[in-house]
Amino acid sequence: MGLMRSLLLAGSESRWLRAQATRRAFVRRAVSRFMPGETLDDALGTATALRRDGIGLVLTRLGESVTDAVETDEVAAHYVDALERIRAGNIDGEISVKPTQLGLDFDRERCHAHLRALAGRAAALGSFVWIDMEQSRYVDATLELARSVRAEHANVGVCVQAYLFRTAQDVERLLPTGAGIRLVKGAYREPAEVAFPRKSDVDASYLALARRLLAGDARKAGGRAVFGTHDTRLLRAIVEHASALGRPARDCEFHLLYGIQRAEQQRLARAGHTVRVLVSYGSYWFPWYMRRLAERPANVWFVARSLVRS
Ligand SMILES: Cc1cc2nc3c(=O)[nH]c(=O)nc-3n(C[C@H](O)[C@H](O)[C@H](O)COP(=O)(O)OP(=O)(O)OC[C@H]3O[C@@H](n4cnc5c(N)ncnc54)[C@H](O)[C@@H]3O)c2cc1C
């Protein structure tokens, strides 16, 4: 892992830095490149332009490591509201939630109950719930939550991270459940005992897992396979592989982050693929933003430029 990436990921966990950064106008300006605003209205406001490009929406309210039961209830209520607003606005939208935002750290039963309720509400409103994957210490519990909620509701999927050694095995266990699987590279600081330290190995793991998800027997269980990446080399390889297998373009689904590789998002949608953009919003954006900087340390220059312009 590069030094800059390590420093940025370490910084993402610093409370002091969070307090400093969130007060600075120039940082907030730089963040706006990846986030349309802090409110649900700001996030929903992106739907019209995306729809014009044939692109759907996945909403995620930033927040993690919540340690207060009342706060988890508020988060769950917020997502119910988001699902209802999606439906009322006739928006092609889904939600993506972090288990630690719903209480995974201190009350697994509460987290489970919230996810079940959200999946039930989403099913009634014709939407879908994605479960984010956080640090490696949460993987077992998160997969167990996904399996258990999927046993009751079909409209649930979970994220898996290509940087973890264990993911190939996790995917084999998930496939028969019919849960949706969203494949990403992985955004956290993980030790070399559990994750590939080299980017080239992560990329190779991603492609191998993508091919596995596209295989005929993997598709039989019926769960959605979604590729969450901005890596144009991987995107092309996945499209080529799916087409060689005779999969219709529509069945090849890609999710990208708001503000990243917009031309690629539009190109994939024009080519007939299913494309959604994950739009983050909320006031708790600091650790999430630091992870975005770590993915592309050149982004630090955007922050510096915003400072110069202030
Ligand atoms: C829909 C979606 C959901 C996700 N959910 C999770 C999750 O639940 N858990 C988790 O651990 N991670 C999640 N991630 C983040 C993911 O793990 C990666 O950290 C992130 O996608 C960057 O990796 P990449 O595949 O784009 O490849 P990279 O090799 O990091 O990037 C490839 C290229 O994309 C562009 N790019 C990538 N990131 C940026 C950026 N921040 N700014 C500007 N350009 C950029 C650059 O041109 C770069 O060269 C999610 C990502 C997406 C798209």
Description:
The protein has 310 residues and is an alpha/beta fold. The chain has a single domain (36-284), classed as TIM Barrel (Alpha-Beta Barrel), CATH 3.20.20. The chain has helices spanning 3-11, 15-23, 25-31, 40-44, 47-52, 69-88, 108-124, 139-152, 167-174, 199-214, 216-220, 232-244, 262-270, 286-295, 300-309, and strands spanning 56-61, 93-97, 129-131, 156-161, 180-184, 225-228, 253-257, 274-281. It has an 8-stranded parallel β-barrel with strand order 1-2-3-4-5-6-7-8, surrounded by 6 helices. Helix 6 (69-88) runs parallel beside helix 7 (108-124) and helix 7 packs across helix 8. The longest helix is centred in the N-terminal third of the chain and has 20 residues, at 69-88. The two termini are 32 Å apart. Bound molecules: flavin-adenine dinucleotide (FAD). Flavin-adenine dinucleotide (FAD) binds at residues 132-133, 159, 161, 184-188, 228-231, 255-257, 260-261, 278, 292, 295-296, 299.
